[in-house]
Amino acid sequence: MILPETHLQIGSLLFDGLDQIDLTGPFEVLSRIPNATYRVYAKTTDPVRDVKGLQLTPDATLAAAPKLDVLHVPGGFGQEALMENEEILAWITQQAAGARSVFSVCTGALLLGAAGLLRGRRATTHWASFHLLPLLGAIPVNERVVVDGTWIFAAGVTAGIDGALRLAAELRGDDAARAIQLYMQYAPEPPFDSGTPERAPGAILDQARRAVADITAQREATARRVASRLGIVPTRE
């Protein structure tokens, strides 16, 4: 836990085509961390749209971001377009190097990998891209939230809320995280037990895999190019 009198700078990366809940789920938690400033950063200050069309506006440009204590990298289909974007990857690398904590949600982990930051780290990501982690040098761990030192990885989409609460506890203590959870009334009771590939009915899983087959294949091709560029020998496939 960091001393409560230490002010924290928390920043999230925003980009076209992200999955908004990868950003807004953690926002509900991170924006309530005591004695902290939370802001959202993007290449420009122009509004962007998430994968389903929700418009979101950054607070400031990447260049205007201070040295962040906490770097949050969300995912979504738009992550794929940034995997070889030198400006974005350089910013992630720079901010991660000085951060107290790095937190990825969903395929945000792949962006960290494209920046060469996953080598030897235990990590997770969305189930449809989980098999790509070894290509980026990571040790894949099939859990909803994975902690590797001061780095926290959340699996797909809603797992970002769980990961953010874990991060809040690491930064300000368990009681601070509990207070945020209570304010949010975060006590999920889903009507169906179909939230993971292991639990979903086979027909539903097959349908879901077909729905993301094209982006998954594209992500794999990109991950292999990135691995070649970085000289990464996969830990396991």
Textual characterization of the structure:
By secondary structure, this protein is of the alpha/beta class. It has one domain (8-230): Rossmann fold (3-Layer(aba) Sandwich). The protein contains seven helices and eleven strands. The protein has helices at 20-30, 86-98, 108-114, 159-172, 174-184, 202-211, 213-230; strands at 8-13, 36-42, 48-49, 55-56, 60-61, 70-73, 101-105, 122-123, 139-140, 145-148, 151-154. The strands form three sheets. The protein has a seven-stranded mixed β-sheet with strand order 5-2-1-6-7-11-10, with helices on both faces. Strand 6 (70-73), helix 2 (86-98) and strand 7 form a beta-alpha-beta unit. The longest helix has 18 residues, at 213-230. It starts with 7 loop residues before the first strand and ends in a 7-residue tail after the last helix. 43% of the residues are buried.
Low-confidence stretches: none
Rg over alpha carbons:
17 Å
Question: Main β-sheet, in a few words?
Answer: 7 strands, mixed
How many DSSP helices?
Answer: 7
Average pLDDT score: 96
Query: How many strand segments?
Result: 11
Separation of the first and last Cα atoms: 35 Å
Range of helix content = 25-40%
Total of domains = 1
Which fold name is given in CATH as the topology?
Rossmann fold
Structural class category: alpha/beta
For the record, what CATH class applies? Alpha Beta
Shape call: globular
Name the helix and strand elements from N-terminus to C-terminus, one letter apiece: EHEEEEEHEHEEEEHHHH
Q: What's the CATH architecture name?
A: 3-Layer(aba) Sandwich
Please name the fourth-level CATH homologous superfamily. Answer: Class I glutamine amidotransferase (GATase) domain
Strand-residue proportion: 15-25%
Within the largest sheet, what's the order of strands? 5-2-1-6-7-11-10
